[in-house]
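Subject: two folds for Thursday's group meeting

Dear M.,

Sorry for the delay on this. The cluster queue was jammed most of the week, so I only got both jobs back this morning. I'm pasting them in the order they finished. Each block is the input sequence followed by the predicted structure tokens. Could you check whether the formatting survives your parser before we put anything on slides? The first protein is the one we discussed after the seminar.
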Amino acid sequence: MNIELILTLVLIVVLIVLFIYFNSKSIIKKTQTKLDVLNHYKKTLLKLLEENKDNKDLQETKKVEFLNTVKDELSKNRFFDTHELKVILDELEKLEYK
């Protein structure tokens, strides 16, 4: 009887550890994917601004168009909530070509 209880407890602990391990990997993967998306948008915007570095008005126009495109894309993406969308747009809005 005592051995059965110990084996059951060991099995429960192993299952809990496996659950936590696989669940945390999923969270890390989602976070990394979101960071990848943000970095992609940053690179794209910086490239767009660099292409128009001689014309500040055109830069601003292209930036606004790009931000609207990003907003449309991310608002349709079920992995980003409205707060994350706002944070990403704010961060992209601050970017400037130097």
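Second protein, same layout:
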Amino acid sequence: MTFAIWAIPSEPSLSRLQSIINRLASEMNTPSFLPHVTMFIGETEQAELITRFTTVVDQLPLLLSPCTRVDGDDFIFKFLYMQLQKNDALISGNSRFATLDANSDYAFNPHLSLAYNDNIMCAKQESINALNLELEGLEIEIDRYQLIRSGDIRPCLQSIATWDVIADQKIDVM
């Protein structure tokens, strides 16, 4: 089974980012999705994955990361994205999740996608400039993780419908 680990921003960033994602999806006629940072992607049997996921999340502290810039890419799932500062806390979180599949070749590059789009010809520089102004100085806090079963991993908009949350856990903030 192919799986992904998503780090979910806490409020008020979650609502603010969801509003931006929904607005962009409406403007571009593309799917909306939950704001998240993909911490890890791997493959394993599902039998003990949820228990192992829970064990890792139980060890994680609250994570903070500033947005360094908004940018765009030709890759469908990074059409418009917010790059995050790759700090020690994010790297440590990724390393802990990597224990769920030691054979994964996932290259961690912390970002939060703002729009998925398979039309790479769509004009986006104006959106990037506006989003850089709108999100300047934003620091996101991560206090929740989701374990996603990725049914169809092809990079296409249709694959989104096959993504399924199989575990959702907030970290224990003391």
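Two things I noticed about the second structure. Strands lie at 2-9, 37-43, 63-72, 80-84, 111-115, 139-150, 163-170. The two ends are 34 Å apart (CA to CA).

Cheers,
T.
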